[in-house]
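=== Discrete structure encoding ===
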Amino acid sequence: MGKIYLNRPSIASNLEALLNLEKCKQGMFEYLKHYSGGKLVDLSNKIGASDIILSDVSRLFEVDYSNLWDKETGNKQIDYLISDYKFIHLTNEILMTHYNKKKDALVGWKEKISFIMCSYESLENKYPSAKILFDFLLAIFEDKEILPDQFARYVYSMDENKDLLSNYLSNEQNVFYDIYGPYLDGISLEEVHNLRKGELNNIFKKRRTDSNQIVKQLADSYKKDQLKNQIITLWKDKTSSKNPKDWSYIHKTPIILLVDNKEFDEAKKAFDVLNRQVAIDKELKDTMEFLNKTSLFEKINSKEEINTAFSKLLQGYDQFLNLDKVRDKLSLLTIEPFDWYGNPTVSAEIERMAQAEYDAGGSDKIVKKIENMTSEEAKKYLIDMVRNNIKLGAEIINKEE
């Protein structure tokens, strides 16, 4: 070197002009254009990183003792950067994004994976050739440390299976329906999007059995909600009311009075389910079964049928009482119309109203009717009354001679 300098003294100034930052950048870029077929430069253009490629390469050599690396070690670092750029490029292709930094691509994948509808284990079972790819996605999602050599193998698998992954993401609901079909009985493919709820988020990291359980619970809940909505819709269409309590309030008549005796117990249970917000699956199924077979809807919109039913509440005093006046009077109580039937306060109020009407001239009508009877008619009437009225019979027995 000294001899060269003695023969060519200008070499020092030439080296100074050559070994500056700008010339180093140019030299490195020329090297990258030819290294490994120019893969890194080509990828940088594809991902929009041509303006940062040299700074990315520079960071590779910022570690301690990098000045001691041989050419093979330096090239290995460039290979790692090629894998990073390839990962960014594949991410942009698959997710249709425009990242140019590895950290941003990783964040993009984490967000996408959180909404994937199937567990990694279920996907590995369906696509065994892509197991390494799904392991890669799981490692990304769980923020696991991935060493450069392993990252390169992962990226290679992603490249091999990019079409499979793209097709899965584009037809995810179909794959979901295929994988979890045994738990989706009664749910159509078109309804699968309704299962995209919070419980399904992050299912990708679950084991296959755990994901099966999550999907089953979601499907059962959805079917239960669907059944409940069907019941509510059926009730509204048939009755023009929200529920039995609402119908009773509108018509000032306890709805249970319209129910046939043979349906009484079923109706009470069904009305209870319809009136509350929460019900178990069996209750909903029993309620739907009742609504589909009951004769209630044949008379529920008939004013005549409603009045006939309401008269049952009057304990036989309907001859003395005006139905609408009784309704208005009972409406002043703090008891909802749905609960009037069988309520002792309501019974007492009806008896008080009947007694008032009876004392205000109602008894005179009865006395007059009796007076117009012959003795034989009166005697026969009294005997018939005693046979059919235990209270009257007891009064006669207990009456003092």
About this structure: The two ends are 152 Å apart (CA to CA). The mean pLDDT is 86. The chain is about 65% helix and 0% strand.
